[in-house]
Amino acid sequence: MDSSLYWMGISFAILSGIINNFGIILQKKVVNEIRAEVKFGRVLIKNPLWLLGLMMQLGIGTIFFLSAQVYIGPALIPGLMASGLIILAFGSVKIIGETLKKDEIIGILLMIGAIVLLGISGLSINISEQNLLDLMFIFRIIIFSLIVFISSIICEILQRKIEKYSGILLSIFSGLMFSLSNFWVSLLLG
């Protein structure tokens, strides 16, 4: 793969994460400013800042995500999109007025290091090299999708029953759903 295309894919994945999480910050700012007695949904739909945040998440961020899929494949994108969490953390401090704890700052620094290492790793997967009509390939896709989906359902059920591990199980559930969507997007683009 051409080096410039690889770095363009890396940039698109990072931009997707940043734009997506900045959209979340804008939406969170609007939600925090709404009084409790107001009809919540109607106020959100009429607020241009909230709509801009939604457009950044679902529109602009998605375009960069799909572009990154084309250039570097599905392997690196989730890790690179995590760069947006750094923006989410600092944006929450600046725009919303939240505070960061010492361990959160250490986590951000570790994430920055991981993103740099992912970027220079040179890893990419060419999503157009597989014959999508091969029966064994289709069988593997179905098995993988079912395993991930069933695992997600199990995590969802367990997080309702075991309150102590609810946060961890929801995180695993979210990661599994994100990996499944990332997997299917790469197939559809291939």
From TrEMBL:
Coiled coil spans: none
Regions that span the bilayer: 6-26, 47-66, 72-93, 105-125, 137-158, 165-185
Record key words, sorted: Membrane, Transmembrane, Transmembrane helix
Protein's name in the database: EamA domain-containing protein
Organism of this sequence: marine sediment metagenome
